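User: Continuing from earlier, I have the next pair ready.

Assistant: Great, send them over.

User: Here they are, in order.

Assistant: Folding the first of the pair now:
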Amino acid sequence: MKSAGIDIGSRTVKLAIFEDGRLLTAKKRENSFDPLTVCRELLAGEEFDCITATGYGRHLFAEKTGANTVTELKANAAGAHWLFPSCRTVIDIGGQDTKALSVDSEGRLLRFEMNDKCAAGTGRFLEVMAMALATQVADFASLAKASAQAYPISSTCTVFAESEVVSLIARGVGRSNIARGIVESIAVRTASLAQRVGAAGEVLFAGGVALNQAVVDALAARLRVQLHVPEDPQIVAAIGCALQGNTAVRQADRAADWLAGGKR
C-alpha cells in the first residue's frame, strides 16, 4: 500500500509517499495564495492508496479530497521518530511559527510549546531581516558567520526588529555583526521554548530555518545537546503524515477524482 502525506505550510507544501515502510517520494514546492493549485501540481503523476494532510491548509485540502488530517505536532513527532528514533525533543521553526515537542520512545507526542502569536524567529522573520540587510535568505548564514561578534537585537517583534536593524545600519554597525545578533536572538528564543519541554539528549531540528547553518550552530551552542538536522528538514511533518496512512480506498478514489478536475 502506498501512503501519502502532505504538509501544507504557510511558505511551502511538502509531499512524502511511503510503501511498505520505505520512503519512495519526498518533494516540495513554494506555496502561494492558491494552495490547492500548488497541491495539485505537487501530486500530479503520483500514485497513492490514501493521503493524510497537515499544516495550515489541511482542512481545506481535506474538504476537497476526503483526506485524513493530523496536527502538525503529531506529524512532526512521528516523522522525527522515523528519521532519528533516539531523539526525544523536536524543534520545528517554520514560516510562521516555532514549535518545541517532547516525544516518547515510540514517537508519541508528550508535551509541546508553541510561539504562534508572533512571527519573531520564524522563516518570515528571517526573510524580513534579510531584506533589511540587503541580502538574500540563502546568504544570511554566511553573512552571520563572517562575524565573531554579535550586535544585540533587543526587539522581539518582526516590525520593530526591522526598524531596529535599519537604524543600526544607519549608525554604521556592520551588517555581519547585525546578522549574527539576529541569529543569536533566534537561538535564545528557541532554546527557551525547547527548555520548557525538557530538551535533553539528542534533539531534531526541523523546518525551513534549519537550513540556516548559523542558526543551527547558535542553537546547538545554547542547548548544549546533539542537534540532528535531516537532509531535508522541511519534509519531516509530511513523513509523519504518510506514516499515519490507512486503507481507506474511497479516500484515494476521491482524491484522484479531485486531481483529475472532478467535482464530487
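And the other member of the pair:
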Amino acid sequence: MAQWLQRVWLRRGAPACLLWPASRVYALLTALRRFLYRTGLIRSTRVRVPVLVVGNVVAGGAGKTPTVIALVQHLQARGISAGVISRGYGRTGQACLQVLHDTPIEQSGDEPALIRRATGAPVFVAPRRADAARALLAVHPTVQVIVSDDGLQHYALQRDIEIAVFDERGAGNGWLLPAGPLREPWPQRLQTSGRAGGGGIDLLLHTGEHAAFAGFASTRRLADDARRADGSRVPLASLAGQRLLALAGIAKPEAFFAMLRARGLVLTETRALPDHYTFDSYPYTSDKGYTVICTDKDAVKLFPKQPGVLAVPLEFSPEPAFFSALDDLLAPLLSPLPWSHGHQTA
C-alpha cells in the first residue's frame, strides 16, 4: 500500500483525484491547528537554547536522520554542544527517556539509537518533543543547541531554525494528504512567519541525485567498508563473488540495493522490508548460506540477534554552502535571547 501511494502521489491521476476531497478536509484541519498555535490559543513551549528542526514537508523518508547526524557532527566539530530529541517512531511505551548505548531498541526506536551511536550526543525520546527537550536540558545543562529529528509539524515546541529535507520526489503532485504527499501546503510555508504554528522554512536541503527545485545539494554514497557487530571492518570489494543477501527495512529499500550494485556487488537475493521493521518475526534460518548485508539503521536491531550480518554505513554530506548558511543563522542565537512572554519556558 505504501509503495502504491508513493506512485499515486507523483501525478494527478485518477486515484489521486478520487482522494482529493479528503485532502480538503485535511487542509482545513491542519490550517485550524496552525492558527490555534500561532494565536496562542494552544500554548507552545520555548526552551532556553536554540532549537533546530529537521523534517519533511512530504510523507515518507527523505533523509532526515542522515541530515540530523551530519548537523550534530558539524556542530561538534565547531565545539558546540548539541543534543537530539525525537519521538522515537515505532518504539514501545510512552515514557520520556534518555537513549543510552545499552537502551533496548524497542524502547528507544531505531533512528534515535542510530543517532546516538553515530554522534555520541545526548538523545532523548518522548511522545511530545517539548517534554524530551526539557528532560534533555535538565540532565545535560551545558547543551547549547537542540536538534529535533523530525517535527516540522510539532508546533508544541517552538523552534528557531527550520530545515526541510526533500528527495528526488520534490513536492510530488503538489496535493495534500491523502491525495498527495504533502503534510502542509507548499510552497506556502516558505512565505509565512511566526515560529509558533510553523514559521518560514529557513533552509532547503536536497538528498536525492536530482533536485526538484532550488535548495542546497548533498552527496550520499556507501562507505568503502562494511562493519561487523564488534566494530571491525570488511572492505566491500572483498565481498565480490560471495552469495550476498541484501535486506533493508527503510523507506526506500531499492535505493540501498541500487547503491550496492553501483559499487560492483552482485546481489544473489534482496529483501525489501517495511520501514522501521523490528525483525521480531524475521525468518533468520532463511539466511543460511548467504553473507547478509544491511543498512546501519537495520543493524542496530539485527546485531543483537544476528551478529554475523554486515552493516554498510551511508556517508552523507550536505554541500559546504549549506553549513555556512546554517552557521550564519545560528550565530546570533547562541547568545541569550529575550524570550517572548506568554509561553512556557524550560
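Worth noting for the second one:
The longest strand covers residues 161-166. The mean pLDDT is 91.
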